[in-house]
Amino acid sequence: MSTGTRRRGGDLEAAIYEAVFEQLKAVGYRKLTMEGIAAEARTGKAALYRRWPSKDELVTDALKHVLPEPPPSPSTGRVREDVLLLLTCLRDTLVACRGAALKVLKEDSGEGKGVMNEVIRTRISQPVLDRLYESLVEGAARGEVRPDAATRQIARVGPAMIVYQNLTEGLNLGDEELASLVDDVLIPLLRP
């Protein structure tokens, strides 16, 4: 424990959440312990257990803390801009989690996957997919998208490519690469 100024409230909570992600990256979910998180946050275990009875609850709150609110429907009136905004939101979410969530999801152990999956699915991935699908349907109504391309399956292509890149390369797409994904892969797939 640090001998400096004692942190309380929001400062301590932020340090604990940061420690959760650092520990997830370092040891994975299976080996994640309240002791390890406390040491990383330079606080005592009691500070953790007073608020979170289990690591599942702590990880859930840490994810909710860093994940943005579900994205609203962009409805810019242009499919390209809608898709780019939504995929940027998804990419930025992965950056906010520092890849820790995906590391847990690709671990061999099933432990932790349920917690991570549920929070990420309800907070980001399902809303992004729903908004992407809505944008495709609206684009089809405006004549920007082939009617047979306005499907949930096609709405999954962009997010799948972002997650694949993160899982296999461990790299997040930059703005130019994300724009290229939209312009060179998705828009040609959607064109009438």
* Rg result: 19 Å
| Percent helix range | 55-70%
Q: Major sheet: size, sense and barrel closure?
A: none
> What coarse outline follows from CA principal-axis ratios?
elongated
Briefly note the structural class of the backbone. Answer: mainly alpha
Counting DSSP H or I runs of 4 or more residues, the number of helices is 10
CATH superfamily of the largest domain: Tetracycline Repressor, domain 2
Give me the count of strands. Answer: 0
Q: List the domain count as a whole number.
A: 2
Q: Low-confidence parts, pLDDT < 50 over ≥5 residues?
A: none
User: What's the CATH class of the largest domain, please?
Assistant: Mainly Alpha
| End-to-end gap | 62 Å
**CATH fold category name of the largest domain:** Tetracycline Repressor, domain 2
CATH architectural label of the largest domain: Orthogonal Bundle
Measured by DSSP, the beta-strand proportion falls in under 5%
Order of helices and strands: HHHHHHHHHH
Mean pLDDT: 85
What secondary-structure arrangement, pairings included, does this model have?
Layout: H1 9-27, H2 34-41, H3 45-51, H4 55-66, H5 79-96, H6 100-106, H7 113-142, H8 152-155, H9 157-169, H10 175-190
Helix pairs in contact: 1-2, 1-4, 1-6, 2-3, 4-7, 5-7, 5-9, 5-10
